[in-house]
Amino acid sequence: MLIINVMVINRYNLDNYIQEFTAFLDGSQIAAPYGKHIRSDIKHFAGWLHLKKELLEDGSYQIEDMPRLYVAALGLSRSPRATINRRLSSLRKLNTYISRQQLGQSLWIPKTLNGDLTEKNYLEESLRILTKYDEDLTQELMDFLAAPRASTKHPYLVKKMLDDLVVLDDTFTKYLSILDLSSMSSTKLAVTRKPLFKKDHPNSTITRSWLAQWQELVQRYAILIIIVLLFGLLGTSLSSQFFKKNKLAQAFPTNLTRGTRALSFQGRLTDSLGNPITTATNVVFKLHTAASGGSQLYTSGTCSITPDQDGIF
């Protein structure tokens, strides 16, 4: 039995294999950090292979096809190119181990990737896989992937089209599982906002109109401006409430009114015998320009005065 088949049967029953492979790595004088990465990469490949065991059991694929599908799954999951190349190197070391220990036939491992996946080679790989399934479903998915040609570069278009696609065939779900594009928990494909592929050629892109880009920019900053204004108004209101200064009133009027002039007369009323008059008496006060013989300046008219007990008013 191939060591790969052991991985397929049970993902987690690899203790003995890992120990033997670790001894092989130590004998190859591989530095400890690199050996750790190699063991991690082998476990990752074994776990992925366990999830695809149905493809081997139903005869859809042979064991020799799995490394190529594994590389395609890594690329479509947007793993960094350096990570993919490192895992390919680990699988080549696994091949060496299998060959030296005569555990089974060696597997062909793809060469190191020199470029990113593009829409073109993704479609070619997808269409090649789809030809293994029934013709009706193949034709349906080919039409979906072909129109619009650049839809796979725009996640929002992909999601809209896939939301309208009702999955009626189990083979479509199996196809999604091969490329690790579906969580298998729903018939709808969850698409992230990150671009899936690099630009392949200028004619395969869909350019959003400048108006749509401008509207998106205005909406984004309009919300930010509204939030800033609301916080500014709130801060101003709180400041006026907590730090409000009361206006102090002055002790004297600001608009002065000039008063009228008043004349005051004072004297003592007596009778002919010199006795003080204490009863109310009508008196007329007059002003003259001279003590005698002058002209009259003012007369008060008849005034009633009430002297005190000494006749003084």
Molecular structure report:
The chain is mainly alpha-helical. The chain folds into 3 domains: 3-101, no CATH class; 126-197, no CATH class; 265-313, no CATH class. Helix content is 49%, strand content 6%. It has helices spanning 3-9, 15-27, 32-51, 53-57, 66-76, 81-101, 119-130, 135-146, 155-163, 170-178, 210-242; strands at 281-288, 296-305. A hairpin with a 7-residue loop joins strand 1 and strand 2 (296-305). Helix 1 (3-9) crosses helix 3 and helix 3 crosses helix 6 (81-101). It is rod-shaped, with a radius of gyration of 53 Å. It starts with a helix and ends in an 8-residue tail after the last strand. The model is unreliable at 8-13, 116-120, 164-171 and 180-208 (pLDDT under 50).
What brief labels describe this structure?
313 residues, 6% strand
What string, H for helix and E for strand, traces the elements in order? HHHHHHHHHHHEE
On the 0 to 100 scale, the average pLDDT is 65
Whole-angstrom Rg? 53 Å
**Spatial gap, N to C terminus:** 144 Å
The percent range for helix content is 40-55%
Using DSSP, what is the number of strands?
Answer: 2
Largest sheet: 2 strands, antiparallel
Overall structural class, as computed from helix and strand content, comes to mainly alpha
DSSP summary: helix tally: 11
Q: What topology, given as strand order, has the largest sheet? A: 1-2
Described by the principal axes of the CA atoms, the overall outline is rod-shaped
- Taken together, the total number of domains comes to 3
* Beta-strand proportion: 5-15%
Detail the poorly predicted runs.
8-13, 116-120, 164-171, 180-208
